[in-house]
Structure formats: structure tokens, C-alpha cells
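Reminder: ligand-aware prediction takes two inputs, not one.
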Amino acid sequence: MKKNDEFIIDIEDMSVDGAGIGKYEGMTFFVKDALIGDRVRVRVVKMKKTWGYARMMELLIPSPDRAEPPCPYHRQCGGCQIQALSYEKQLAFKQQKVENNLRRIGGFDEIPMEPIVGMENPFHYRNKSQYPVGTDKNGTIITGFYAGRTHQIIPNRDCALGVPVNREILDIVISYMERYHVSAYDETTGQGLVRHVLIRYGFRTDEIMVCLIINGTNLPHEKELIRELCALPGMTSVSVNVNMNQTNVILGTETRLLWGQLFITDYIGNVKYQISPVSFFQVNPVQTEVLYGLALEYADLHGTETVWDLYCGIGTISLFLARRARQVYGVEIVPRAVEDARRNAALNGIENAAFIEGKAEKELPEFYEKEAQAGRQAYADVIVVDPPRKGCDERLLRTILQMAPERIVYVSCDPATLARDLKVLCEGEYRIERVRAVDNFCQTIHVETVCLLSRENKGL
Ligand code: SAH
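Here is what comes back for the chain with S-adenosyl-L-homocysteine:
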């Protein structure tokens, strides 16, 4: 078997990153865009000893689980890996992914999985979109998305995950650029002005933010652009962000307001947030509310508890919990996120949430040691963690075990590291009480999970 060989295979499984898996002459092949139940003609693109990557050349017999993907670019785009799979099967895949990880990596066999929470309408859920701007071979200005793993722009103003108003905004920006000969940025030469269009939309408030990321300090004829943008109902914030570095990082450091105010407002549950162009904010607000609602339910607070929220970001979970706890401590590594968390607490009149800037695996152990030196046992009723994909640092898990809270609520965006970390906690004196996956990233392979651990030897 070698590169460019062609043959027909049946797809029998799906890899964790959404590729179809089939076997041919004892070898395993990963086929992007092929689904379980498909019969496909493939061509080998890369061969290892016992497995390889193959490209789907022809779909001979489609799987019964195929759905009509609304986006014509779903195969080229790096965004939606499983849009061609029916939503029902997407959910089943994600639920299975969480369960398999807990079984294989965590070594758990009785897993109290609750049914995954999907969306009623699994499209147009993203409150933030960043469209790269460039020029095609004919010099026409285009905007769309990067083809998977490249920086080649495929023109498309109608992303199926974004809000419909994105299209109107992009039409305005591009026609303004054409009219006034405002150039698009060229990544290879570092020349040209407009790099990206960042759009944020408040799902509860209908407020809209547009920020043009530019390779320069000024936007020519900005008044014309503003005039058209602010005619859109809900327009709240128009700004430019200056990024003159030749880099893949989208945003630069300086943001300048052109019209309105520098933030939009939105809500998660009954907590209000001010979101600036550079703020981190969960991209699917509807499902975030579901996810954090579950975290709150699992935390089972009655107003008397001391809670730690580690990896707290802008404090979304902390503020959600603070209303029902005595005191919440949030720990977060990014200084600007900590500032946002404090501002959001003040904005909501929440006074029982304090935020600590630093690494969770440093701040919590140090706090524990300091208390120990003062002859006290560091105390928490509930500890919540919501780490990035790489999961929790082992040192942090050790301190959590020493603090021995009654309950641990683990919110995870990667089931593999979740399983690894739960293993450590359950080798201590915790057991898994409840687990539930939430689909925050419909059409993609990603999944969020919330898990409740409770301490076995209560009162010891
Ligand atoms: N619950 C948060 C988001 C969590 S995402 C919210 O809803 O806003 C994970 C967060 O962990 C990010 O904000 C990231 O900046 C932060 N982080 C990453 N490594 C960290 C570390 N070692 N210690 C503390 N925070 C960290």
C-alpha cells in the first residue's frame, strides 16, 4: 500500500477528531469527511506502517446518518468537522466520546452518564465571528474563512454558525472598501490595511459590535463606513483595532472607538456582562447558560458555602455561583480576564466574589501552605474547575485532595484530560456522582462536560 493508491472501503468508526475510519487489507485508514456507514472510494495521501490517511474521492453509498449540510463549504472549511452528520448522531458521538474516555483513560466502569444536552436549533449559535479579509487572484476584495489548516481565504459571508446579521455587516464593509479603494491586508507581504472584521452579537440584548482590525492607525473615509453600519438596528459599538505586526494573532493591543461605546452588554442567566472587542466570552451563550446552570445545580449551594472557582476566566461561573454562596474565590492567569471579572462583579453588585490573578496550581497550594503555617486548614465546601484543554496541573489536584471539599464540580472542554484528572481525584476519596455532556459547539467535534464528584468519607 502506498501513496496515491485507490480503493473502496466501508467506514465503520469515527476518530476523536471526526474522521471516518475504515479498514483495507488489514490496514486502518482515516478518511476526512467520510461518515460511519458510508462506502467510499479513497486515495491514500499518507502511509504509515499499519495505518494511513486517505482522501475521499467518491461517495459511492451514503450513510443513512448523513444530513443535508446547509453550508456548501463545510468540507473545505476547518470549522465544522461533522456538519454532514445528522444532529442526533452528532450528539450520540459526543456522549460516547465522553463515556469512552472515562472508561479507557479514567478506568471507570460504572459511569452515571446523564443524557447529553443538545440545541433545538444547532446553527447560528455563535455570538462572535472573525472574518479574514483579503484579495483573490483578480484583485477583488474577499472575505470568508480559511480553508482547513491553511490561510487561503474561501469567500463566504454566510457562515452557518454565525448570526444572520454578519452578512449585512460584511456586505457594508466590503462595498465601502471597494468604493473608497481601501486595501485588504496581504499576509505574505505585510501590506494592505484591513485584516479582519470582528463581529459580536448580544443574544439577549440584540446589541451589535463591529471592530475592524487594521494594519495602520487610520481608516480612510471612516465616516462613510460608520454612517452605514450604524443604520443597522442594534448597532452599539464600532471600533478599529490596530495590529501592525506580521503575525497570526488576530488582535493588536490598541483599540480605538469610532462610534457608540466600546462594549456591548449581554447576559448569562441573570448576570450581566460588558464585552469589549478583546474580552473573552463564551461563544455559545445559550448552551453556556445550560452548562453553568448544571454546574450551579451540581454545586448545590445554600448561601453558606465557601467556593473556589479555578481557571475562572472573566468570572462567569464565579458570579453565577456567588448569588447562592457565602463567598467565592476565583483564580485566573490572564490579567485582563481578572480585570473583567472584577468589573463584572461590580456591574452586578456582587460583593462576595474575590478574584486572584495567577496560576491555579500555584495560588491554591500557596494559600493552603500559608493557612497551614498559621495553624489553620484551608477550607472549601465546593471547588469548581474549568481548565483549558490540557486539564488541571497535578499539583493543583493534590491540593484539592488536601483541602477535601465536600463536592468538586469539574467543567471540561476535553474529555481525555477530564478522565485523566478524575482518575487522580477518585484514587483519592472522591467518586463520580453525576456526569453530563453539553453540546456548546454543534457541528464540530468539540464537547463540554460537567461532572460532580463527592467525597466518600464525609465528616472524617
Ligand atoms: N469559566 C471561564 C472560562 C474558562 S476557560 C469563563 O466562563 O469565562 C479556561 C481559563 O483558564 C482561561 O480563562 C485561561 O486563561 C485560564 N487558565 C489557563 N491556564 C491557567 C492556569 N494555569 N491557572 C489559572 N488559569 C488558567
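The radius of gyration is 24 Å. Residues 6-65 form a domain with the OB fold (Dihydrolipoamide Acetyltransferase, E2P) fold (CATH 2.40.50.140). We will return to this case in the review session.
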